Amino acid sequence: MPEGHVIHRYALDHRDRLAGRVVRATSPQGRFGAGARRIDGRKLIDVDAHGKHLFYRFERAEALHVHLGLYGKFRSFDAKPPPPTPATRLTLLGGGNTIYLAGPSVCELVEPWAEQAILDRLGPDPLKSGTEGNTVEVFASNLARRRIPIGAAVLDQSVIAGVGNIFRSEALFVAGISPHTPANSLTDSEVAELWAVCVTMLEKGLAEGRIVTVARSRVRPGPRRNGAGLYVYQRDQQICRRCNGPVSREEMANRTLWWCGVCQPPG
Predict the structure, then answer these.
(1) In whole angstroms, what is the distance from residue 245 CA to residue 206 CA?
(2) N- to C-terminal Cα distance for the chain?
(3) In the chain, at which residue ranges do the beta strands (DSSP E only) sit?
């Protein structure tokens, strides 16, 4: 499932391609036929992202809400797009740009009150840090109400929106926090450090279009393989980049977690 920086990159790209334009919408698959007809011929006002959710706001129509889930995928074209596949849920065309959406877990039109209800269920988004409702104080309040391990809490989108499995392992490692620490037992300084690390990592991912958490001087050029560019994610049976101790793995919150027991000692 794409992490928050990928969703924000989609928002930026789709806004650049279609915002301010009259958009033609179709549903080759047919599952979103009624919704596509509702927004077809409407002007797209803006595209916004929060965590792993996208909202397309149209003139005189409901907002389009998209969540890619595990299998959703966008494809964008600026000239001569290929025909959409039969599995394409939605096509958006405007100004010579074409966007295809296939396999999302959610593709729906929502009234303003329903959009707000979705946002109210989500935690603060590090990529909106400092704006209303997206602050370290809100993050701290969410953690204070949870006794579960912090390694599970940061995957809960109602605690912090946009952090996925890679950022979970990497952020906890950089912050030096054991994933087994109860969320409500973190100190104020630990919460502030973890929030700051998440902000920095997601902002870097947004800017670069990939996740690299290790300093560039220690990263070999080329595509990421076997954890190159990462501290602990998918690096079990390898040594820690900081202490040369072993990198451990286990299942937590139904996802595989990686950490270093030396650099992230129990609280």
Answers:
(1) 31
(2) 30
(3) 22-26, 42-50, 53-58, 63-67, 73-77, 88-94, 97-102, 106-110, 247-252, 255-260
Tell me the domain boundaries of the chain.
Answer: 4-120, 126-260
Query: Which tens digits make up the pLDDT trace of 186-221?
Result: 999 999 999 999 999 999 999 999 999 987 544 444
- Token pair in block for residue 189: 């300084």
Q: Point out the catalytic residue in the list 2, 84, 104, 126.
A: 2
Considering the candidates 17, 28, 42, 52, report the single residue annotated as catalytic. Answer: 52
Confidence of residue 267 (pLDDT cuts 50, 70, 90): confident
pTM: 0.93
Would residue 128 show up in a list of annotated catalytic residues for this protein?
no
Q: What class, spelled out in words, does domain 4-120 have in CATH? A: alpha beta
DSSP state of 91: E
Q: Does residue 52 carry a catalytic annotation? A: yes
Contact indicator for 90, 58 with CB cutoff of 8 Å: no
Active site residue 2: yes
| 9 tagged catalytic | no
pLDDT tens digits for 142-156?
999 999 999 999 999
Other CB atoms closer than 10 Å to residue 248's CB: what's the count?
18
What's the CA gap between 260 and 242, in Å, rounded? 9
The secondary structure of residue 192, as a DSSP letter, is: H
Query: For the CA atoms of the chain, what is the radius of gyration?
Result: 20
Closest CA to 192 of 147, 138, 265: 138
Considering only the top CATH level, what class is 126-260?
A: mainly alpha
Please give the DSSP secondary-structure letter assigned to residue 210: S
The label of the residue with tokens 């033609």 reads: 24
β-sheet bridge partners, residue 63: 110
Tell me which residue of 140, 147, 166 sits closest to 155, measured CA to CA.
166
